Amino acid sequence: YDSETITHDVAVLELxxxxxxxxxxxxxTIGLATTAQFYVPNLSVIVSGWGITEDYGKPNDxxxxxxxxxVSNEDAHRGHGLxxxxxxxxxxxxxREAGQDSCSGDSG
Length: 108
Fold this sequence. Notes:
This protein is an alpha+beta fold. It has two helices and three strands.
């Protein structure tokens, strides 16, 4: 993790005992995207986290998720008036429905 650029913010959980990955209740492993898959415009992605759901709110106790769609960094800058550049490792995504998004606490 690089606190200067906020890149590579991933988590590794170390469990005390084995965890059954049998698909029950949607519990399974996922594959990591390759670089070629990473920036596919309009690709559906799931963002999950305990992020805030209102301005200046507190993190959630319940894990939430939202479906977003990849947009190019250029489109994100143009469409949202962003005036700063971000690291190549970052991606932009947006919801198709108003009121849905990821927020502070959902990164990684």
